[in-house]
Structures are given as structure tokens and as C-alpha cells.
Amino acid sequence: MNTDSPPAGARPDPTDGRAGAVAADRRDPLADFRERFDVPDDYYMDGNSLGPISAEAEASLDRIVEEWRDLGIRGWTDAEQDWFTYAEELGDDLAPLLGADAEEVVLANSTTVNIHTLIGTFLDEADGTKVVVNDLDFPTDHYAIRAQFRQRGIDPDEGLVVVESEDGRTLAERDVADALESHDDVVVVFMPSVFYRSGQLLDVERLTEIAHDHGALAGFDLAHSVGVVPHDLADIGVDFAVWCSYKYLNAGPGALAGLYVNRDHFGTTPALAGWWGHDKSTQFDMNLEFTPADSAGAWQIGTPHLLSLAPLEGSLSIIRDAGIDTIREKSVALTDYLIALVDERLAEFGCSVGTPRDADRRGGHVAVEHPEGQKLAEALKDRGVVVDFRPPNVVRLCPAPLYTGFADVWDVVEIARSVLAEGALAEYETSSGGVT
């Protein structure tokens, strides 16, 4: 990046109208990055669920396809980046976004599988029987942890210590500390970095300190922060983390997930051992006894899905070009702007913001709450604004900084204002089930 560029965090004044947003876009050092993506709609505000394809992601996928065509099985050793170590190499590339050493990061499995194997691993290694979570978690986290308890003959209702939110949106770190004070046999504190519904950004460093002060390990689900929020996992002593690659990393639907394991835990036998986690130097000796890799790679299970991994190579190159700190600056500016516009333009129609207003407590999306949020989400989609709805009343808006501008945010709010002012929600019905 040009160090003389204007700051990405310079948001426009909401009272300056659309002209102010357009002017801010002209000053934005990341404005040209949109051209590197094929954004499927004029107003794509759902990158916190699935990021769009980029030219670079498509190119790295095409290269693997051509290597498959030209090399066949020889691709495992003779490809431009040999397939045998591809997941580890991309872990090396991803590590700087996490503040981790290269050996501590690997691409593997799915997020849910990674929760299974890591929680299971540390339950096996510890004397305790409890895991601290919270009632705002994404459901898969609880499904996986409860399954691991059942596998060990532990009653999930006894093993799972659920910290309850006071407002149904956010969590205070002190409440996690209180939960640990009440239980002596906690093995792991497992929390998200960003809540999927409200967008609250938790203090990962503080939670890690709290866990360690009580003799527990600190693990995190980083699905809603990797690629839009910088992390410093190694320095603050996080024990392990998991994430998906299809949100802010823009690696495509069902892209291979990632995991981080602090080097202090290298050599531990994974709960779900598989041949791809074997020490690479002897993997093809075909020994029947498992020898774990001396790295995070030990928690790989089966052969990596190359076609679900390749797009990440290209998408990471874009993030490196932009710089994660610059991405974060613009993300904060965009969400600040969106919150200000909701206050100014939508509050009179029953909209409010359920996301923390302090930028240090906010991830990359904003939860706009409305009593008829599901209807509002459907009305926006019908008008070319891609959002999603989360019960009971949240419309999630994500102005992803690599391909969203300030004028986009202004336009989206104005479309929502028109929908509400015209009474268009009366045309819609609420429903349950289906993909939102």
C-alpha cells in the first residue's frame, strides 16, 4: 500500500448526504479492490456469511484444475505448489492475520469437525469435565461440545457451563470470570471472537487471561473475525482456535476451514486422529501406529479437499495487498457510518442498532433490529439488497471493506427507509425454516 494514501478510517458525515459518501469513496485507498471481485448484486451486504469470488481465487482454483488435468496423481509432488503440503503452506500464508507462527496454523476439515477434535483433545488431556460457553453462541459449537461429552460418558447438561447474556445481545467478560469462580473443574473456556447475531467483538486477550488464571485453556471460534479483524493469538497465549474460510476470507462456499494450536500443545495426540495429521516425514511408511505431526497439522484428519482449498490462495493474496490493519480501519469506518445512518434515517420507523457502538467492541457487521425484521430482510432482498435475518428481529448488514463503499451504505439505508416509509412490509408474511 502507498503510505501516503488517506486513512481508510475517514468516514463521511451522515448529514452530508450521498455526496459526502461519494467523496469518501474517492479518498478510500481500498476503493479499487472492488474491481478484483465479481460481486453478484449491486448491494451485497452478506459477506459475513459468504464472500464473493475474486479473479485471484478463481485463478488459483483454475490452476489446480489444470494441474489435475496435466499431472494427475503427480500433482501431489510435482504441482507448482505440491498438493502434499498445500494445506500447511496456506496455513503459513494465513498465520500473519492471526498473529501466529507458521507451524501453528493449518487448513483442515470443517469448523464443526475442528471443534470436535480440539475440544475432545483437551478433554482427554485434562482432569476436569467442564467447558464454559455462552447462550449467544452459534449452535454448532454447542452441538459439537455436547457430542464430545457424550462420547466420554459425561452428562452434557452437567459438563456445559453456559454463561447467560444479560441483554440477549452481548456478553461481559466479568460474567465469564464469575462462571469460572463457581466451577473448579473447567477444562476449556470456548468463546466466539465475534457474536454471529449482534456483532459484538469480545476481548480475546482478557478472556484468555481469565481462563488461564483459573487453570483452564482458552479456545475461540474466529469465524466472524478472521480476515476483517487483526488477531495476536500467539503473543496473548490463546491455546487453540477454529474458523471457516468462506466469510471475510472469500474462499468460496464450503471452503476448507482452519485451525490454530499454540505450539505449547504440539505433540498432543488429537482426539480424532487421521492419516493426514501424521508426521509428514513418515506418513507414507504406512505404520499402523499414529505419530502426530509436530505442528498444528496434527489436527488434520483426512486428505484435504484441494478444490475447496485452492481459492483461498488467491483470496489471501488480495488481503495481503490490502493489509489487515487497513481493512480493519475501513471496516470500522463503514460500520460507524451505517450505525449513524440507522440512527438518523431509520430510527423513526422502528429500527435500532443491536451492535456495540464502541468500535473496539464491534466486528465487521451491524445488527439492525426491527419488530418485523424478517419482513424487512425479504423486502430488501426484493430490491437488490442482499442481507440475512437472524431471529428474533435482526437484519444483519455487512459492509465488507474490500468490495463495499460508503455510497453503497448510504443507498442501502435509503432503500430501507423507502420500504418502511411506504408501508411495504404489509406485503410480506413471516415464515419459519429455510435458508436466511
Entry keywords:
alpha/beta, 4-stranded antiparallel β-sheet, hydrolase, PyrdxlP-dep_Trfase, 2 domains, 14 helices, single chain, Aspartate Aminotransferase, domain 2, EC 3.7.1.3, 12% strand, PyrdxlP-dep_Trfase_major, 7-stranded mixed β-sheet, pyridoxal phosphate, Aspartate Aminotransferase, domain 1, 436 residues, globular
Structural account:
By secondary structure, this protein is an alpha/beta fold. It folds into two domains: 14-38 and 323-421, Aspartate Aminotransferase, domain 1 (Alpha-Beta Complex), CATH 3.90.1150.10; 60-319, Aspartate Aminotransferase, domain 2. The protein has helices spanning 17-27, 55-71, 75-78, 86-98, 111-125, 139-151, 156-159, 173-181, 204-213, 233-236, 306-322, 324-346, 373-382, 406-421, and strands spanning 37-38, 43-44, 53-54, 105-107, 130-134, 160-163, 186-192, 217-221, 240-243, 258-261, 352-353, 366-369, 385-386, 388-390, 394-397. It has a seven-stranded mixed sheet with strand order 4-10-9-8-7-5-6, with helices on both faces. Strands 11-12-15-14 form a four-stranded antiparallel sheet, covered by helices on one side. It has a two-stranded antiparallel sheet with strand order 1-3. The relative contact order is 0.17. Its cofactor is pyridoxal 5'-phosphate. Pathway: Cofactor biosynthesis; NAD(+) biosynthesis; quinolinate from L-kynurenine: step 2/3; Amino-acid degradation; L-kynurenine degradation; L-alanine and anthranilate from L-kynurenine: step 1/1. Residues 87-230 form the Aminotransferase class I/classII large domain.
